[in-house]
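Dear support,

I submitted the protein below through the web form. The confirmation email said the job was done, but the results page showed an empty box. After a refresh the structure appeared. I'm attaching both so you can tell me whether what I see now is the final result or a partial one.
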Amino acid sequence: MAGRTRQEKHDEELRVLAIDIGGTGLKASIVDRSGRLLVARQRIRTPYPSPPPVMLDALAELIAALPAHNRIAIGFPGVVRSGAVVTAPHFGTEDWAGFPLANAATERFGSPARLVNDAEMQGLAVIRGNGLEFILTLGTGAGTGLFRDGRLMPHLELAQHPIYGKKTTYNDYIGDAALREEGAKHWNKRVAHAIDVLASLLHFDHLFVGGGNARKLTLAPSPTITIVNNDSGIEGGAALWRGNPLEPGDYA
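What the results page shows now:
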């Protein structure tokens, strides 16, 4: 039997601390190269206000009980680039703009870290690698990620884009506040309308819908829409480190 390649050995030894930073909750687990959770997911509430030092302290509390890891993957709700935060609509962009979160996590938690948008990290766990695939996450706000033939495309911060009138963004229209204010029935109609708008805009081949509020959807079954488990927001962290189809610069 031929010996294992260096990449195969690396993949087998991966123990990724996958962190999903959300506007309501912070979640983390250790995953193997396939994205399988090796221990139960940990969750704490997101602190507010949450500038970088407060967030890092909260993440330290979140992961304190988790076993050893050798890599870190972080999904962050905003625009990120080259390991740093560009926008942080939930936490205050003025506090976060330019903050090198990947480097800070490496220094604080002791393993190399990579950073990607949180919806995109969830998408990495569920995409099939064929055609144009889009993920919409429904949580505190609305997250999005776009993939073509398994490759991550430039991030579109559609959550901040108007969908109704001049000022009502996707976050306003289908975020958690809208669900609570409008009720599940009306909110579901809004989500269906948002999906129609996104389909007209992107002409995606397949839509994945995730996030904590996806379980409240009443969409009719469709061969082009898949509702995904919220744990995929953590499972996708493995794709940032295994032998993956994306260029390292897409996340690092």
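Response: this is the final, complete result; the empty box was a page-load delay. The mean pLDDT is 92.
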